């Protein structure tokens, strides 16, 4: 009954309100940038060249073996960005050479190792054909924190074949470049 009386008499009522605003919030994206350095002589962006190769023996010009007798070469991969990254893939690009191309007889394998790692046993990453494109098998811890580095060790071999398979590749040449693809590490958000 009281509600009806207020409605009939056109009663008045009031309520209070207030608002506030935060100060401007700035959001800045981090960046992810990768740099590759080949250990050895020469510039890091020049192609990897195969010289004086023969069945059972491959020598990569301008790159020193990291450890005698292992025939593993290495590249230093540095995340110069401000956010953590992870190696998504290692690709062979700009593969060129003579006809026939020596790459047709070669195989490659690679493994990622943290910067302070001293090679002993790399496990056994399998060899795969030396072709343009992504390597199918790249074992190892691929995390590259912002401002830090890892090594990608790689090995190239010319498997022993028959003279009929190998002879056409006498004096053949090949060269290629590596492309390392780095992705942002999932921050869990």
Largest sheet: 6 strands, antiparallel
Q: Kindly report the average pLDDT value.
A: 77
Strand content: 35-45%
Total helical segments: 2
Tally of strands: 11
Q: Low-confidence runs (pLDDT<50, min 5 residues)?
A: none
Structural class: mainly beta
User: How many angstroms separate the termini?
Assistant: 55 Å
Shape: elongated
Fraction in helix:
under 10%
- Rounded Rg: 30 Å
Order of helices and strands: HEEEEEEEEEEHE
Describe this structure in words.
With 189 residues, this protein is mainly β. The protein has helices spanning 2-9, 163-166; strands at 34-38, 48-54, 57-60, 73-79, 85-97, 107-114, 128-129, 133-134, 143-144, 149-157, 174-184. It is elongated, with a radius of gyration of 30 Å.
């Amino acid at each position: 009954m009281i509600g009806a009386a207020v409605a009939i008499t056109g009663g008045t009522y009031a309520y209070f309100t207030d608002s506030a605003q935060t100060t401007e919030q700035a959001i800045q994206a981090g960046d992810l940038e990768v740099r590759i350095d080949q250990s050895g002589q020469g510039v890091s962006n020049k192609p990897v060249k195969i010289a004086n190769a023969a069945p059972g023996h491959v020598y990569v010009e301008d790159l020193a073996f990291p450890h005698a007798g292992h025939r593993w070469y290495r590249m230093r991969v540095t995340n110069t960005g401000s956010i953590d990254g992870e190696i998504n893939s290692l690709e062979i690009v700009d593969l060129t050479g003579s006809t026939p191309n020596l790459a047709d007889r070669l195989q490659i394998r690679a493994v990622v190792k943290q910067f302070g790692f001293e090679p002993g046993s790399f496990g056994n990453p399998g060899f795969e054909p030396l072709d343009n494109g992504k390597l199918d098998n790249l074992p190892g811890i691929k995390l590259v924190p912002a401002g830090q580095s890892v090594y990608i060790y790689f090995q190239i071999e010319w498997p022993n074949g028959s003279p009929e398979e190998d002879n056409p590749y006498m004096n053949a040449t090949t060269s290629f470049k590596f492309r390392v693809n780095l992705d942002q590490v999932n921050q869990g958000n």
